[in-house]
Amino acid sequence: MIGMEPIVLFGIILALALNFVNGLNDASHSIATVVATKALSPFKAVLYTGICNMIGPFLFTTAVAATIGTAIVHASGLTPLSIVVAMGAAIGLVFVATRSGIPISSSHAMVGGLLGAGIAVAGLSAVILPSISTLEQVAFYGLIGGVIGAIILGLFTASFKEDIRLGAMLGAVCGAALIIPVLMLSGALKISGLLAIVLFIFISPIIGIVGAFLFDILISHLFRYSRRNRMRRIFQPLHVLASLLQATAHGANDGQHAVGVITALLVSSGLLLTFDVPQWVILTSAVAIGLGTCFGGWQVVDKMAKQITKIRPYQGFCAATASSAILVAITEVGIPVSSTHAINGAIIGVGATRGKNAVQWKVVREMMTAWIITIPLAIAVAWAGYFAVSLALTVL
Prior knowledge:
Distance between the termini: 27 Å
Oligomer: single chain
Radius of gyration: 21 Å
């Protein structure tokens, strides 16, 4: 770090601080279900998931970091000052949300911060927008998936003499959401950058809900004659393992946010010629998110573990497994997906197996509202913050 300008050093510190508050808020995602079902004590849950969050960035590629640093804002909008302001805006939003017990996405706070500061520097041309042909492909495949889903679920509900219209509507939503990641993972559809991030605001919770719901139904059917005590003995250790995998996947995805930002900062300041991630950046980012997780955001844990729905041990296993699978798959293709959305969707999915009244939909609506406004709010804060800081520096 010798020879770095003060603003670059400050930016690195802010990026690590963002990873720290990321772990502080997102600690709840990995430990909420194991704490709720008493599979682990709060202390052990925080300690183990903190370690797994730290390990995560070393087990996967740096594709997420590359997306953060190169696929959201053009180089013209990435200056040391804009990156510092973006980090400050994201940290402020995540910290306030954590104190308020709101599980917002630190991923989206950071993306919004980069967009807002980048627009302040170079205007709307700073934003890397998808091509028209890509948008047309997404719309086409989404329509195909929606039609297929509507037909399948419509016929399924009709066979049970239930509301066909409701079944078709739910099938259309699920089909449209599921077909996009399937095509992406198969290589038939190429989506990256801002479009992928925005799409997965809606896709990841839907996949979480559907995946956890179906997995819960399968487990319930296979163990329908088992006693509750036997179910607990079987699924408590499996639940712990699934939660640790979820924490590792979270560290691999969210832990790369600071990696991408710090590397972009080094490139923008001329200290790196190309976007090649140094090992010390990965190490320091991993340590920061691990430490943040160890402190935990207990108000967020309470909302996720207790206020959404009541979770049984086998359901905690289903929710953690479904959300882990989502995070691992999406991390491999380099999308900074929100672990908040994935695990919350999975918790809702297992709760919904006991009927719609088993889920506290008021709490769900509050969280969804926070998810939707996070990026626009971060854009506004970072945009205003950039001009305020620029003015202050000019006066000084």
